[in-house]
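Input record, target 12 of the design panel.
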């Protein structure tokens, strides 16, 4: 039995998501060793953790443009090599300013990954399957994060933090080479896509033009240099992006979602060790639990998105899972504030991350809906706003604690942002494409 090509594709994009977060979370697990060796205090480490998010946020839109313009085959291969180089260079940093510079460029390289994947999904995946596939892809980030929190402390203890970063660089090079060899921008040119599968993809993919007439190739052809084949690429203007109410609203809610989740990747591990006296491996196990719950939230939400969509409710398929997710995220964050033990705190925060991750599949599916063959730049713009939330999170936790003498205000801010996102989803409309009149 032959596995459909788009299912093999999901294995590649899932593994990319794992790699993204293994590389990213290594800094959090190595925090103590790096701070000790290089003499960084908590505020300096807050900037080290957040500067990545700043570089990641600012280059989301350019990263999406690269995927739309040159195709995900070339753009993703080059970006993975780029950020892997700076993963390895982290090992030779000797002072704070060099660390900030290296981590900023590392974030800049990772910025194009998910917008590139969004462009892949537009080309390869029928509209009715996008929710679950987005959920599977983003669950890779949670599984990669959980894997990192469980195994990287042992790797760092055995090899040292410098050698650990060099090892991760080699993993990135390996993925980039494999992707360039296997992937094609147009499924019609890929040897593993049968005629039947290609017909299914073309029949159920959104048209690239606003007229509703698909300009995709209806027959197999040869890959081009650029390889983006859904008709002539119509570049979206900055003015159109800036004037889209849909895009502003979806970006704001993604800021709210990322504010909660990014805490897991930066300060949760150090917070548990300081608040509850947990040691490295034990703290890693507790810190990994919310990420596993996040993966489950991604799967459940992706399934729910597709199920509601197949029932004929396009807007509700994006809106309802996201609203439920934000309600759960707010409740979980507030519950964790009043927990007396590490176990109960993690149980509540796992609920929060489960809810926050329920918002991801509808968010990215929404961007593909309104962006169509500009899905890369549209999703990149949303992810830019979301990762400005990540940047704020990494700084807000230590600074709010210093100003107020307590960690509690941070969690109230996170809960409030989750509640703000709920009415935003009531206002957005997935049926209104970016190129249509507002």
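The sequence produced for target 12 reads:
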């Amino acid at each position: 039995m032959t596995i459909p090509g788009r299912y093999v594709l999901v294995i590649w994009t899932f593994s990319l998501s794992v790699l993204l977060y293994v590389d990213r979370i290594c800094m959090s697990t190595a925090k103590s060793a790096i701070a000790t060796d290089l003499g960084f205090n908590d505020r300096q480490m807050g900037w080290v953790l957040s500067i990545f998010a700043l570089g990641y946020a600012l280059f989301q839109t350019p990263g999406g443009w690269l995927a739309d313009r040159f195709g995900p085959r070339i753009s993703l291969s080059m970006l993975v090599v780029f950020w892997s180089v700076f993963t390895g260079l982290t090992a030779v940093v000797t002072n704070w300013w060099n660390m900030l510079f290296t981590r900023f460029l590392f974030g800049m390289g990772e910025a194009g990954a998910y917008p590139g994947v969004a462009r892949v999904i537009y080309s390869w995946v029928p509209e009715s399957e996008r929710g679950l596939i987005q959920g599977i892809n983003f669950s890779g980030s949670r599984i990669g994060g959980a894997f990192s929190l469980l195994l990287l402390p042992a790797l760092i203890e055995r090899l040292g933090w410098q050698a650990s970063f060099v090892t991760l660089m080699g993993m990135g090079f390996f993925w980039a080479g494999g992707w360039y060899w296997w992937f094609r921008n147009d499924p019609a040119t890929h040897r593993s896509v049968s005629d039947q599968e290609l017909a299914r993809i073309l029949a159920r993919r959104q048209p690239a033009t606003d007229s509703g007439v698909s300009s995709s190739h209806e027959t197999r052809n040869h890959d081009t240099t650029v390889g983006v084949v859904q008709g002539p690429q119509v570049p979206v203007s900055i003015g159109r992006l800036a004037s889209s109410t849909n895009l502003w609203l979806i970006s704001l809610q993604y800021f709210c979602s990322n504010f909660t989740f990014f805490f897991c990747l930066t300060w949760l591990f150090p917070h548990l060790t300081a608040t509850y006296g947990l040691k490295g491996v034990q703290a890693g196990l507790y810190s990994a639990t919310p990420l596993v719950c996040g993966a489950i939230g991604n799967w459940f939400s992706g399934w729910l998105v597709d199920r509601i969509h197949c029932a004929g409710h396009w807007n509700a398929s994006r809106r309802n899972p996201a609203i439920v997710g934000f309600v759960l995220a707010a409740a979980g964050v507030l519950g964790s504030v009043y927990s007396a033990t590490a176990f109960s705190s993690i149980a509540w925060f796992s609920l929060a991350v489960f809810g926050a991750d329920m918002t991801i599949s509808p968010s990215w599916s929404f961007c593909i809906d309104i962006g169509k063959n500009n899905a890369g730049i549209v999703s990149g713009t949303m992810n830019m706003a979301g990762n400005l939330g990540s940047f704020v999170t990494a700084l807000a936790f230590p600074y709010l604690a210093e100003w107020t003498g307590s960690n509690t205000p941070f969690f109230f801010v996170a809960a409030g942002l989750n509640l703000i996102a709920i009415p935003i989803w009531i206002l957005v409309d997935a049926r209104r494409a970016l190129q249509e009149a507002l």
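Confidence is low (pLDDT under 50) at residues 210-232.
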